[in-house]
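Quick log. Single chain, no ligands specified.
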Amino acid sequence: MDPVGVSDLASIIIPTYNRAALLSEAIESSAIQTHRPLEIIVADDGSDDDTVEVVNRWRQQLANDPGVDVQYHHQSNSGVSSARNLGLIASRGEFIQFVDSDDILNPEKLSRQIACLKKFEECGYVFSDWAKFEDPDKWGPMPADNVKITDSAQWYFDHGVMMTMVGLYRRDICFRAGPFSEDMNAGEDREFNFRALLATPKVAYLRGKLCAVRTHTGPRLTDSHFIGQNRMIYNVRIYRRIIESADAEGRLCDAAVMGVLVRCLTDVMLRSLEAGRRDIARDAIEVCRMMPVGMSRRVKLSMYQTLSRVPKESFSRVWTFWLKIRRVIFGVPYRTLFKPRNS
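-> predicted structure:
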């Protein structure tokens, strides 16, 4: 990826795979952006449907608009992360926008968010709210520009911010964050966005629903990865990568990072033990030990490791007994039993 972009140019990157029926709406929502200039980059991850024909129709339709350039890049099927990287390498814009091929952008998204980044130069990333595609009044009334500037640390694990489509990146933030991890095809946006937020001290929140997410059963580039117990496996991988990224940046002792990670990993441990997946629980324990946790947390990790040897059919009984001991002997209030502390 070229670290230097074309001034004021916005690059819209659309990864896709066998979504010809939906892709046209994503391209249309990009083409009607009120911001100019822009380039629309379709990164085709090995589709064997009519994807290229859809892109060519839009090329012809936009041929007389000098402010829009439509590009098509094809690769063999390698996953959503690889497709997004293909789009990043092809991009030339000062600003980077990702949009999945089944979702759409509000016509004012780029113009409003680019204006925000130009006004607040200390911010490398701006994000807004999202709507459901099926909502007939999805955009609602557009609020007056009401921007909140905050430390990036406040949003490291926020679900809304972890969706790449809700935000707009300065090019240098994507460059400094590095590529999407191509061995991850589920949760890869969360892991990438964590690195992106590490790369900028401040982010901007701009009120308003500026993108819409379609809820449907497929096909998705992340199909099969985040289903059932696979979700727990991928979550452990995501948290391991996040810890490694934080450690590389010297941020592993940051309470904003460690506290949330410990809670997330503890949740994975309990869910996997309840499901009888002791292998996942042990992996989560090892990942948690990568962090500089306090003695109380190390004692709990040892307890979880002991529980990981308990057969699935006995886990609920043993776990209930442990909770009673904590509540009666150690005086831990019931409401805090499933809310681990930050250390």
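Residues 221-226, 334-343 have pLDDT under 50 and may be disordered.
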